[in-house]
Amino acid sequence: MSTEQHTFHYQQEFKLESGISLPGFQLAYTTYGTLNPQRDNVVWVCHALTGSSDFTDWWSGLFGDGKLYDPEDWFIVCANTPGGCYGSTGPLSVNPNTLQPYYHSFPQLTNRDIVAAFDLMRQELELEKVHTLIGGSLGGQQALEWALQKPDVFERLVHVASNARHSAWGIAFNESQRMAIRQDPTWADYSEPAGQEGLKTARAIAMLSYRHYTSYELNQQEPGNSITDNYRAASYQVYQGEKLAKRFNAYTYWLLSKAMDSHNIGRNRGGVENALHHLKAKTLFVGVDTDLLFPVEEQRFLHEQVPGSAFALLHSDYGHDGFLVETEQLIQAVRNFYQTETINERYYEKQTV
């Protein structure tokens, strides 16, 4: 069984949290597996900042034959975020009102806007219940926000390496990256490659927050003692910037980093703690012990604030990227989460007989 690519079209005005509206949009999305007759085997995936709807590409260890989410058992869905560059409406799309690409005129999005668009697609697919909503990093932010917006839809939430409100530290990292884009003279242009050189530097900065001292020491340190220039670590930074620039654009990077900064589930909900009291989904919070960008204290805080939630800690040398690298640990954490839930339900049933 293979994944299938689709496009959802929304042809009405879509009002954003800022008050600005998009004249409709489209979402590119991927499905894998078959919806069962009970329609209760849905897993919805939210991707990270530079991800696409093809979750089998960037989270391949979790999805596939014989894996945690086997398409024989599950119907898995992932949509490329609005503002993205993998088939969904974004800055390179044509504005139907002007018949020209949006470029810099594309409106700023928040995570609330993004999940509101996802929910319109969910309704179109007639998915009244979602067994598990899972996301990491920016995708984890969106998953938590969505679970709060639609508490009766999502039965379980697997929230990975993310937070309830983006930190000042995280915002500072993102702004440093946007500063690099602004320094690119082409960023002022209204053209597809605008800001691409700046994007390369932005990605290099980001790698320092995605990884950890240990991973660089293990993988990028020089093997000898005679090198005085052209270091492996320096080449690695250049490589990562050029690699992203080949598949991404500076506009989307700018927009989605701003969406990450906007994340605050407490906004207009009486604060973070009050908002979390309304979370109905059975939830697993997952952290990575070396994560510098979304430190484990953020996931522990969430776990402490949500009664009955579960917590799992992944051990990794790869920092924040550990949530993508430590697949076996993550799989075991999710399996334990499901098994504990089943054990608790059986215990409750025995107590009520």
UniProtKB/TrEMBL annotation:
Keyword annotations of the record: Acyltransferase, Amino-acid biosynthesis, Cytoplasm, Methionine biosynthesis, Transferase
Documented EC number(s): 2.3.1.31
Main location: cytoplasm
Keyword Acyltransferase: yes
Keyword Magnesium appears in the UniProt entry: no
Domain AB hydrolase-1: 42-326
Pathway where it operates: Amino-acid biosynthesis; L-methionine biosynthesis via de novo pathway; O-acetyl-L-homoserine from L-homoserine: step 1/1
Active site: S137, D291, H320
SUPFAM superfamilies registered for this protein in UniProt: alpha/beta-Hydrolases
Gene Ontology MF annotations: homoserine O-acetyltransferase activity
Cell compartments where the protein resides: Cytoplasm
Reaction(s) catalysed (UniProt annotation): L-homoserine + acetyl-CoA = O-acetyl-L-homoserine + CoA
Residues given in the record as substrate binding sites: R203, D321
Taxonomic superkingdom: Bacteria
NCBIfam families: homoserO_Ac_trn (TIGR01392), PRK00175.1 (NF001209)
Entry similarity comment: Belongs to the AB hydrolase superfamily. MetX family.
Entry function: Transfers an acetyl group from acetyl-CoA to L-homoserine, forming acetyl-L-homoserine.
Protein name, as recorded: Homoserine O-acetyltransferase
Species of the source: Pontibacter populi
Source lineage: Bacteria, Pseudomonadati, Bacteroidota, Cytophagia, Cytophagales
Gene responsible for this protein: metX
